Amino acid sequence: MKMNGANALVQSLVDHGVEIIFGIPGGVMIPIYDALYDRKDIRNMLMRHEQGAAHAADGYARATGKVGVCFATSGPGATNLVTGLATAQMDSIPVLAVTGQCRTTAIGKDSFQEADITGITMPITKHNYLVKDAAQIPRIVAEALYIARTGRPGPVLIDVPMDMSLAEIEYEPVKDVKIRSYSPEREIDDSAIDAAAQLIADAERPVLYAGGGVIASGASDELLALSEKTHILVTTTLLGKGAIPETHPHSLGMLGMHGTAYANHAVHNCDLLIAVGARFDDRVTGKLAAFARKARVIHIDIDPAEIGKTVPADVAIIGDCKEILRRLVSKVQPRSETDWNKQIMKWRNEFPLVCPMDEERLLPQCVIAKIWEMTRGDVILVTDVGQHQMFTALHYKVTKPRRFLSSGGLGTMGYGLPAAIGAQVGCPNETVVAICGDGGFQMTVQELAPAVEHKLPIKICLMNNKYLGMVRQWQELFWNNRYSGVDISVQPDFVKLAEAYGAVGLRVTKMSEIEPAFGKALEVNDRPTIIDFVIHREENVFPMIPAGQSIEEMMVNRPK
Amino acid sequence: MRKPMQHTITVLVENKPGVLARVSGLFARRGFNIESLAVSITDDPTISRMTIVVTGDDSVLDQINKQTNKLIDVIKVIDYSEVPIVERELAMIKVAAEPARRAEIMQIVDIFQAKIIDISETTFTIEVTGSTEKVDAIERLLAPFGIREVVRTGKIAMARGATTAIDQVNSG
Ligand SMILES: Cc1ncc(C[n+]2csc(CCOP(=O)(O)OP(=O)(O)O)c2C)c(N)n1
Ligand SMILES: [Mg+2]
B72, A122: Cβ pair inside 8 Å? Predict the structure, then answer.
């Protein structure tokens, strides 16, 4: 069939099952937006900033497991995507970005709204394309989607010059993708599985350490099966939350800088660390020389480059976590509970996660705990970045994979609201709760408009401390209380702001108001609700292992 | 082995625009040190070949191999540290050549089986091929005469024997 490049692009997306795009048009994107105009099988959700579009695509991808797609125009539209693409790259999230570009004849001449977006995004995408022959559009779209979702997933960008959108081509759907220089499928080495099973049999104090790779590969059932067969307890990274139900007695919660004390003690003292789909990030390891130094390491990951990148592995198993764990479960000897399990239980009792009882002040961890009580993990929980994110990671028990969405690797403030939009669009029947800080929320607050427009009943819980709280915490603890550049007490009235956008606005100032307010928010089903939780301004996240240090320096409380 | 060493790697890539930027950008942002880089097309016009000399210890080299392999347009990374190879580099050296000293220079050129490819009233331009060490050596010997300009291609390398890099692509 004959059609122009723009129509071929949209048709290719539809052929590959894409139903929604998050984006904003511009001059060179008009042909592509025009191609969307009459279609019923794919729709554009008009965002208010391209960063929001990229995060929405990312949230959609994390919640559904499908590739999230975003569109932006050339120049400033494309550069506005950068933060969102970098966020997706750091967390290995499958996102496809399509950007407009000036005509091929104008490229390289500093033309109006020209930006070298393939050059700019080279380090923050898994791959990118500049279309130079419109006939290649169906193949490029097929390849881009394939690259984004296979192997270690990641963002891919296609830059489409205006004349490529307009050129007539003969459209042939591309079904099979074969790229000679890219083969994500790999044979799993069974001898490595045997070696791992042996290390597990020999270990006295093993711990499982699960990351986002378990979620990406859908390996939660296998992980739980391994843990149950061997009675090895599981700690997860921030991105691994939900890999094992955190209500399960084998869950130790999150490890690392703001991990639970018992998870960190377990990892510090273990003699075997089994890393599954995790990459030994510095927020996890702290001081490398002191990290799990008594342990042998089994490292399971789909990306060979992660093996030995920071921590050497005694046994490495490369491939899809799900299949590796399946084989490992059948190979390992069952183990029963040991003194090691009891020891970890002792740490659990010694350093419990508690919410201080405080009727006077509204404490963020108590707000999160209350929300947990009222929802029991039966929501998609999205966070922004800061103290509230860590309070949520510590106090909200996630029970299923793809039900906790947070920007981990890049730590992007402003992620929360747009990612929640993507998640709600992808999972219309789920309750979506976004926990945001007052700082980060204001970075992408404009996305309230599409949320209202599309009647998305997202529950936005603002942990309002009128501070860039996480930075203030560091300044308090390590910089002698010199609160430089963190006071954001000049801010809008968030209840009125909600109402101005056509959302519901509520305010909570004491403990007793949490339940009625959140209960009310749960009943709203045709628009977002913002609850402005006016929390104690100077609450700190504990436990905390200061950056680059070891568990010996862990603080479980505010130093006196 | 933890000691930083020089390694020669060959990277076969899709012959497409921007691929050099992808590879060199990766090296720059991951802090890998490139000593030299030579790029050319191959007998297969869809494939380009890069010969990269890098320094680093074993773990750095391991990361270089793996991270480079992850680039979608990279077809194959071949580490020549462990196999016997032939390697060559070409240099052109413009050296001051006062009439009185020309014989001396020509003797050096002879010994190195180099060639004088251009001559002016005051200079010789010398072409030399060989191992990096050989090129270094002639450069050192010519230095006292006054080197005006040097250009080197960077090393290119091939495995000894009948196997080819492209064979290795097909064998996975
Ligand atoms: C885009 C961006 N800018 C700056 C930072 C650095 N940063 C990390 S946490 C934080 C404070 C966040 O404040 P807020 O959103 O109010 O959350 P709180 O920590 O108070 O819960 C800042 C500024 C960041 N992570 N992202
Ligand atoms: Mg704040």
Answer: no
Residue B22 is predicted with a pLDDT of: 97
Q: Which of A76, A81, A95, A85 is nearest to A27 (CA)?
A: A76
List the residue whose alpha carbon is closest to atom 16 of ligand 1. A439
Residue from A231, A229, A310 nearest A275 by CA: A310
Per DSSP, the three-state class of A495 is helix
Dist. CA A384 → ligand 1 center (Å) = 8
Q: Which residues of A touch B (CB under 8 A)?
A: 118-119, 122-123, 126-127, 130, 147, 179-182, 303-305, 307-309, 312
Same fold, A2-170 and A190-350: yes
Per-domain boundaries in chain B: 5-82, 86-156
DSSP 8-state assignment for residue B100:
G
Out of B14, B21, B70, closest to residue A122 by CB: B21
Using the mean position of ligand 2's atoms as its centre, give its distance from the Cα of residue A389 in Å. Answer: 11
Starting at the edge strand found earlier in the chain, the sheet holding A127-130 runs A43-46, A20-23, A68-72, A95-101, A156-161, A127-130
Q: Which chain B positions have a beta carbon within 8 Å of A312's beta carbon? A: 59
Query: CA triplet B152, B155, B160: central angle to 5 degrees?
Result: 150
In chain A, where are the structural domains located?
2-170, 190-350, 364-542
pLDDT value, residue B171 = 66
ipTM over 0.90: yes
Distance in angstroms (rounded) separating the CA atoms of residues A129 and A221: 37
What is the number of alpha carbons within 13 Å of residue A97 lying toward its C-beta?
44
Residue of A466, A490, A467, A470 lying closest to A478 (CA atoms): A470
* Sheet of strand A251-254: strand arrangement: A251-254, A234-236, A206-210, A272-276, A296-301, A315-318
The H-assigned helical ranges of A314-386 are: 321-331, 339-350, 364-375
* Chain A residues touching B13 at Cβ < 8 A: 181
The residue ranges of chain A whose pLDDT is under 50 are none
